[in-house]
């Protein structure tokens, strides 16, 4: 799929997904779903749920390392708290470097530890907020009505009290992370703009076997260490990431080298898959975030994100969008500016297709997002 195809399908993808997405991967999935239809297939199997159940994402690792896995008391990470903590610090630092510096994720101001305390310190909150645009993208009246809004606290407030009780008293931090991700990103993003809606746009039924309820119930009872397994070889054991001559501390790849994500799933599939696939590290399904100036995507987003169109939304700051249009493209393009355009471009496309009325300030909306109502 080339840039021109992504540009051509952008608005249609947003329309069928019915919500914004900060990445073009949804447009890619939208285009991909045309293939089975062209070849006469009506049903496909998809992999949604495997990363959530078996811990495939690198940002799960920091919560995996917050506590020992009591199901494996003799493992190195259970016996050596200092070793585990060093890995945890590196995983947390590396996540910030990758997501913020290279991926262009959205930067939110830290607003205290209340949300973390409410969810037993789950560090996944750091990652969850990176997918949502910061308050500065919104119109001044929105910022004035909800000053100091905390995305983290809004997410924490959504969680049921019964789940919070289990986070505090029963669940390992890794499983708390899984729960938070499933309740937020999987349900609201991955199963929509990377799942059901992109496929049903072309009348394709996608069936995700990893979300089968029997499998889900079984996997929920598995200990953390068979999901993110600590698997350094003999050479790696003697050459830890922070040791002299090894890869730089803070590099996520340096940390994940010592672990196998989705380990038990790899072992179950080992007799049936190639060695290359068995040993392959997780590579997220994301699109590039740097594109040439005046290319198809630049032209398409300029066409969509006009001052008039953004003004009709009513809740977005045009000056922010204008600046993003100037900075997002070219060899030195700003990845976060590009993601702002994808989000706003999605809103504009949805608003135009569905005839959404312009957002206007109302007194009764004050405080809802800040956990006051």
What can you tell me about this protein's structure?
With 373 residues, this protein is an all-alpha fold. The protein has two domains: 4-8 and 290-370, no CATH class; 50-135 and 149-187 and 222-279, no CATH class. Helix content is 53%, strand content 3%. The chain has a two-stranded parallel sheet. The longest helix has 22 residues, at 81-102. The model is unreliable at 241-250 and 369-373 (pLDDT under 50). Residues 3-330 form the Asparagine synthetase domain.
Q: What is the count of helical runs?
A: 23
| Whole-number total of structural domains | 2
* Oligomeric description of these chains: single chain
Q: Note the beta-strand portion.
A: under 5%
Topology, number of strands? 4
Order of helices and strands: HHHEHHHHHHHHHHHEHEHHEHHHHHH
Strand line-up in the sheet with most strands? 1-2
Low-confidence sequence ranges:
241-250, 369-373
Shape: globular
Major β-sheet annotation: 2 strands, parallel
Mean pLDDT reading: 88
Give the termini separation: 45 Å
Rg over CA atoms: 22 Å
- What is the structural class? mainly alpha
The percentage helix is 40-55%
Task: Write the topology of this structure.
Elements: H1 3-17, H2 25-32, H3 34-38, E1 43-45, H4 50-54, H5 61-64, H6 76-79, H7 81-102, H8 114-118, H9 124-128, H10 140-145, H11 151-158, H12 161-169, H13 173-190, H14 192-200, E2 205-207, H15 213-220, E3 229-230, H16 234-237, H17 252-256, E4 259-260, H18 263-269, H19 275-279, H20 296-304, H21 307-313, H22 318-327, H23 335-354
